[in-house]
Specification:
The chain is mostly helical. The protein has one domain. 72% of the residues lie in helices and 0% in strands. The chain is globular. The protein starts with 35 loop residues before the first helix and ends with a helix.
């Protein structure tokens, strides 16, 4: 098994390690094993959960057009989603319950964020959703058709880039607490800021390819059925990141007009 599998923390290198290479094929009934179709179906359910709570939070904002009206949902969704993400990662067998809860909470957060952003940049939420799902289907097509092949060098490159982005975000947040701004151009709407956002969006999109590959390895390993929920949860984590980065990129472009 390669050292690096995916930079998605939900689909880390040890996620399917215990199942080996189909070693449980004779111990787990075929109907109780993880499948690709099952994982895609679970992913669709999680997306619908997120859409439902996002629509509710969106309506709460539209009724008042006051950002403070959705701050509670936004905070509960952000911190609650983070908590249930960690619970799901450490207790994978709970994923049939915790993954939908995570999706519902993230929907609340994304609905509030989208509504506020859409208030300042009309239409940006629809554009971000369209680009996110468009990217998902394009990446799935490129992976399934073999146009993008997941090699060890590919994994290491994407993981290194993702780790660098995470460290940069953490450093920027830490410095911001002390009112130190060394990276103003990166967060601005200039060409440097837009270029950085394009790079991050590209890395987030390529993480989807790693997720698809890793889930396929879980199917080959004969993982139990509940891992379909966990696989869907892993894709959701990447999609949430990709959507937020799409919003950030589009807001920078719109700010130039």
């Amino acid at each position: 098994m390669p050292l690096f599998k995916t930079s998605n923390p939900a689909l880390g290198q040890d996620t399917f390690k215990q199942y080996g290479s189909g070693q449980y094929g004779g111990l787990i009934d075929a109907s109780a094993r993880m499948t690709l179709n099952g994982t895609m179906n679970k992913t669709a359910i999680l997306l619908l959960c997120a859409l439902a709570t996002a629509a509710w939070t969106w309506k709460s904002f539209m009724d008042t057009l006051d950002p403070s009206s959705v701050y509670l949902q936004l905070m509960v969704g952000m911190f609650g989603g983070l908590i249930f993400a960690f619970v799901t990662i450490f207790k994978k067998e709970w994923s049939p319950v915790t993954a939908p809860i995570y999706a519902l909470l993230e929907g609340m957060a994304l609905g509030g964020l989208s509504a506020i952003m859409n208030h300042y940049y009309p239409g940006i939420a629809f554009q971000a959703v369209s680009l996110t799902f468009g990217t998902l289907f394009v990446m799935l097509f490129l992976y399934r058709s073999g146009i993008i092949k997941v090699t060890d060098k590919f994994r290491i490159g994407i993981i290194a880039a993702t780790g660098g982005i995470c460290l940069f975000y953490f450093a920027s947040m830490l410095l911001g607490m002390f009112h130190i701004n060394f990276f103003g151009s990166v967060w601005g709407s200039g060409w440097v800021g837009i270029g950085f956002s394009l790079f991050v969006v590209a890395i987030a999109a390529l993480n989807l390819v790693l997720d698809f590959d890793f889930i396929e390895q879980g199917v080959t390993a004969g993982a139990p059925k509940y891992m379909e929920w966990y696989g869907g949860f892993g894709i959701m984590v990447t999609l949430v990141w990709l959507y937020i980065e799409m919003l950030r990129l589009l807001s920078k472009v719109r700010s130039r007009n």
